[in-house]
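Is iron/sulfur cluster placement plausible here? Inputs below.
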Amino acid sequence: MNCTYCYLGEKKNTYMSLETAQKAIDIAVHEANKQYDRTLMVYFIGGEPLMAFNLMKDAVGYTKKKCQETNLICKFSTTINGTLVTDEIIDFFVENTFEVKVSLDGPEYVQNLNRRDYAGNGSFEKIMKNLPLLRKYEQATGNQISIASVVTSNNYQYYAESFQFLLDLGIRKLESGIDHYCMWNENDLHGLKEQLEQVFYLYKNYIIQTRQMLFWNLWEQHVKSYLFPCMFYACKAGLATCYVTTDGGIYTCSELPEFKIGTVKAGLDVPRIREIVYLNDKVDSMCEGCEYINHCKTRGCQTSNYEVNKDVYRPIEVNCKVTKWMYNLIKENLSEKQLNNMKEEYERRYIRHGK
Ligand code: SF4
Ligand code: SF4
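Reply from A.M.:
I modeled the complex. Tokens:
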């Protein structure tokens, strides 16, 4: 695939060796053994992870063996583009209770706008053909497939239509990623705000009318951060999570030299991890006086801030706007009582499941 907004930029056509995967897992197992929840989550992302399905199988087998030896719980997760799934792959996901996320932006005219192959062919048809396989996974596991959609400057006009399309397909876990690498002009931002509000009302009406669960990541994330204050760099990427590239480089969460925290050969660079994770908080001029300063996660997303603005303290404008719009929707639509109930529910979930 050659999606226009791919965060990887030019693809390098590289694959991870089994040796690299095993070394990465050894480090992860060692670290997971120090964690209170004794759980190791291995998350396969790409490019397209299913292009390396054999490696994925070997890595899962190796992880299970290592976790069994040290009495750790292991969990698996992946994000795929949905074009390569087969019966064998679905059986493998079911057998290993993978959490599965599939990229799909919306109906054909939205999906094929950006998610095309190198010959320029859209991917919509292939994914729709594989839908029965994804349903098979849902029926066998009782888990819902998540759909990941990218909202960018050339498709935001269809955001609400796409959300409705996915609801009509029976999707109940929707993850919208607002593209912060592209240019958003004033007009686009205005349109994005309108679409976001429309999506919120679709989400709300669905829940009121059906009384059923619906997961929309933007709502869930913002309600949580609205209710609970957080520190700068709240995610602490590099401490309990990391990102390993095909060549064995270890990063906090994105392949940027400034956020490299080791290699599978040399191990973790602990002093560098400390520098990143415990960086002093410094309020950027953009955030001075903002009422959300102690809750906003956008402000403290060092990696994205650096990637876009070359300054770890300078928040990304579109993310800042989305945070404020979502907080406004929360304030306008939830009563004090509802907010308190939600807070208690989150606290219960945290005590029960650690999240
Ligand atoms: S909402 Fe925007 S201005 Fe306010 S703290 Fe977050 S990034 Fe800064
Ligand atoms: S993208 Fe930002 S919030 Fe997410 S893990 Fe990286 S630094 Fe943390």
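Short version: Strands lie at 39-44, 73-80, 99-103, 146-151, 173-178, 215-216, 243-244, 249-251, 260-263, 267-268.
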